Amino acid sequence: MANDIGNPTGGHCILCRNPSRELTEEHIFPDAAGGSIKKFILCKRCNSRLGTKIDAPYVNQPIVQLARAALGIKGRAKRVPSPFSTVHEIDAPIGKLQIKLDSQFRPVVQPRAPEVSVTEDGKVVVSLSRDLSQKNSVPKTVRTTLQRFFRSTLGKSLNWTEQEQKQAIREAVEAATNADAESLPVAEMLHEQWTIELDKIFAEQAKVIYEVCSLEFGDKFLNSAQAGEFRAYLTSILNDDAATPSLEDVSRRLSMANVIPPSLDPVIKLFTDGERHKYHIVIVTASGVVCSMLGMGATLALDSSVADINTYIGRIYRCNVETGSSEILGIEEHGGNEV
Q1: pTM for this one?
Q2: If DSSP codes are grouped into helix, strand and coil, which group holds residue 312?
Q3: How many CB atoms lie within 10 A of CB 317?
């Protein structure tokens, strides 16, 4: 198994091509999306800019966040992001409740600001709503709310002594501590509306393919006109170039398509054990590249001058984002001689 193919890029940053800049470790697939294959191929500046301008927008796509939530992929903050942002309002015995779905697809009650009212018989009542997971914080919230209330104009108008105020706070905190949690089934359909930015997904796929081809073919690829088109496209994103061409035009210039044709589905299925949604994978042959990231694919028709179809056998870059395992191996090592 070829886990380390070295660095055939001549020690230069593959993006800016500056020979004087020290190389830093780059995640071929974004680490926030479960990528674990790393290579020293980018200078610090290009590495940082690619992370900010290409990796981050890709990782923040709702469809990617949904995959991360389903597979439990944590980011650098060591938590699984929630792809759900819509606040839903439902009817409850205590009035309207606002809920959101968390990363485990569970409804969570959104905190409602505490309200203080005075009953006809002179009692002070605090009303609020919290999710069951926040139950332990309720007594402290009740105490703080009443302390502020008694300093307010309405609270002062009650003309309660300090002892009466403390007694009211003590009773309210005790009631909150002993209150039983109520379970409220959510019987209605909850809807989410997402906008998927295909250009952000395409940019990430282009970055991955460019990096893999640079590792596989070195200067033969990096000095090609095709690699020049890749650099121009990626650099236009890093520079926030308003003149960045349309996705259709970029696809034509790069000879890259943001879809995997049905004829290649069996290939992806073979190399992902039939679970493409759990993998980042790039399959390189002398004639082209297939890239599938969490089930979203792209293909590249490789310039014929880059690789010798008679001698280049092919290679696979593969990450299982669920288990965290990764490998780089020759196609023949996977029994893929017929690919």
Answers
A1: 0.76
A2: coil
A3: 26
